[in-house]
Structure formats: structure tokens, C-alpha cells
Amino acid sequence: MLPQTNHLRSLHTVIRDRAARREDFLHVSSRIMRLLIEFGLNLLPFDPWEVQTPVGRTYSGLRLTNDVCAVSIARAGNSIEAELRAVCPTIRLGQMLIQRDKVTKLPRLYLSLLPPNIGDGHVLLLDPMLATGGTARAAIEVLLEAGVAEEKIIFISLIAVPEGLDAVLDNHRAVRIVTSAIDERLNENAYMLPGIGDFGDRFYGTDR
To answer: Where would I find the Phosphoribosyltransferase domain in this sequence (predicted)?
Structure first.
């Protein structure tokens, strides 16, 4: 979890406000997403790497050990892509569409577009809400089938709840989860408390 600073709490105060202007919601949620991405990238392995500075000295730096790509869970996960592109302009991006089946109530995969050789490196899995954990687990299973090692999956989520964290980590202990807040619980309708509402609808302006 991101360090729970006063600044981060002030950002959450804006996006959780039901009366927040959409432009404020977009601006502030994007700022939190940038913090999440930077934190997630810091979990990746780095190798020593030396470069020559303009004054002829050697700087002992670092560079990523392995390739990294990202996969967003449509449509809410697409909201994180712009901030990721700002930090990593050349990163390869995949996408999944997973929705709950109306009959079985289980997550169903409708679309999976993954970068080639995705199993060779680390994957940032993007979805701003980790609620019941069903969609996250389904997405992780798709990545595992594609050859991605469980310990190389970093799930980036704006807000999580204990039920969702347990659902993922009870089945995939090696997956790492980065979030900016852990809410109290889910209510009887599977909404987070205190929550933020439907993030995708608020972000894309389709809320009523």
C-alpha cells in the first residue's frame, strides 16, 4: 500500500466526494495513478548499468533487468493507461475484457489481446478497483496460461477491500498488489465502503 500521507488522504477526499466536479475527479485520480505506477515500477528487478556523463565521468546507475509490459482490464483499467504511457512511453500494452455472466454470476473472458512473448518478463495488471476479486483472479489465470510466472505479476489498483485481497492472495500468493487505499468492506451489493462509486462511470462521464 502507498504510504498513507496526509497529501494522499487529501487526494482521496476529492475523488470520494460525490459532489466532486468531473474535471477535479479526473485530475486527482490521475495523480494517484501516477503514484501507483511509480511504486509498482520500483518493485521490478534492476541490474547495475554504467554510463558516461557529459563531463567524462562514469555514473553507476541501474536499468530494468527484464522486459515489462502492461495489461489493462477493460474498461476501467484503461483509465490507468495514459499515466503509464507518460512514465513509460514505449511500454507494450495488452487488454482483456472480462464480465460477469448473468446466469452463472462468474467472470467470463470475452477478449484477450496480449503482447507477444508476454511470459518473458514482468506484467503490470491494471484495474482501479479490487472488490470481490473475481475479475482479478480470472485475469491472473489468463496471464498464467500465457506463460507469465505468478511472481512476475504486479496488480495495480486504486482501491481494494479485504475480501478482494483475500480472494486473490489465497489463490495466488506470489502476486504482488499495489493499491493506494484498503477500504473497510463490501456491502450486500458488492460496493466498497466507504467507497468511491462506479469508478469507470465517473471517470468516463457515463454515471447518472
So the answer is: 3-206
In contact, 172 and 150? CB cutoff 8 Å: yes
Number of other CB atoms surrounding residue 19 within 10 Å: 5
Task: Express each pLDDT in 46-88 by its tens digit.
Answer: 999 999 999 999 999 999 998 999 999 999 999 999 999 999 9
Residues annotated as catalytic (active site), given as ranges: 100, 104, 198, 201
For 157, other C-beta atoms within 10 Å of its C-beta total 27
Domain ranges of the chain: 6-47+63-204
Q: How far apart are CA 194 and CA 129, in angstroms?
A: 13
| Domain 6-47+63-204 indexed as CATH 3.40.50.2020 | yes
pLDDT digits (tens, 9 = 90+) for 114-159: 999 999 999 999 999 999 999 999 999 999 999 999 999 999 999 9
Task: Give pTM, 2 decimals.
Answer: 0.94
Give DSSP secondary structure letters for 25-52: HHHHHHHHHHHHHHHHHTTS-EEEEEEE
Tell me which H or E stretch contains 12. helix 6-15
Measured between alpha carbons, how far is 88 from 81 in angstroms, rounded to an integer? 10
